[in-house]
Amino acid sequence: MPLATPAAVRKQIKSGATDPVYLLLGEDDVEKAALAAEFAEVVDEGLRAFNVERIHAGEMTTGDKLADGVAALVSAVRTMPMMARRRIVTVARAEMLLAPKRESEAASRALDDLEALLRNPEPQTTLVFVAGTIDKRGRMYKLLAKQAAVVECGAIEDQAAAERWIGNRVAAAGAEIEPAAARRMAEYAGTDVKRLRGEIDRLLLYAMGQPRITVDDVREVAGLAALQDDWAMTSAIEAGQGGEALRQLALMLDAGGPPEKILGQLGWVVRTKFPALAHADLPAAVQALFRTDLALKRSGGDPRIVLERLVVELCVRRARRGGA
Fold first, then answer.
1. Once rounded to an integer, what is the mean pLDDT over residues 265-280?
2. DSSP H or E segment with residue 88
3. Which of 12, 124, 216, 226 is the most exposed place for a label (fewest CB within 10 A)?
4. What is the pTM of this model?
5. CATH 3.40.50.720 fits 6-152, yes or no
6. 237 within 8 A of 245, measured Cβ to Cβ
């Protein structure tokens, strides 16, 4: 089956027309947990105690435990809904079930039973596997790719998804955010997960101890970054002010600035300013740029540290020539 998006699955949940089997994957554990929990909305709240069951596969570490776990799973899935149209069964840490670390006769029989269940799923039950890292070359994943709706969690498709992501991330940290504040942050940070994660971390730190994060809190945090001069770092290098250049570099990276874009600005300084400001050091500065570019492309260290080294070297050369 083709990959499904979290947004498409949410539409299915809202309509009540869910597929028999889902596999939730991806690095965003918060999004996976939130989406898995939403499947319970298919069942009326008063009937969830009878029709929503959660199984944790984290302890299925031996063949016997795996066999017992699969037997319990099959029983839960085959149980008919009670006074409801559907039954929901969720399996956390499903990678332990789908790709057991230890092979044995009991484990092999358990996987055979699980395969039989997946090939003939219960039409009145929705089975949701929530997995971490899983080998996509494995037997069970290949079967699930054919029989289940595979959902990659982590990519944010639009602003509405970004707002949900923000709400889930803040809730996971034990805090609360106003809907308008989540919307404002989504408008500011966009749909890039890496940038959103950094902005929410800054927001949570800023609002630490508050019962609720407001639009004013978001405005304060986002406003500081929005007012930042993107060329302040290059101006500091031109002036030979190493400390200020490093501070501005940190602000740019913390605001989600791509290392490649920052390197481009540093290249502009070397090409356009160093011929007049530090002509004798121009060849060495160009070589430093090339070394940094290669390090970033080859993942040769933390991008922050790699860029800091280049900024320091450029500032030292500029300061030395300026004092000559």
1. 85
2. strand 87-92
3. 226
4. 0.59
5. no
6. yes
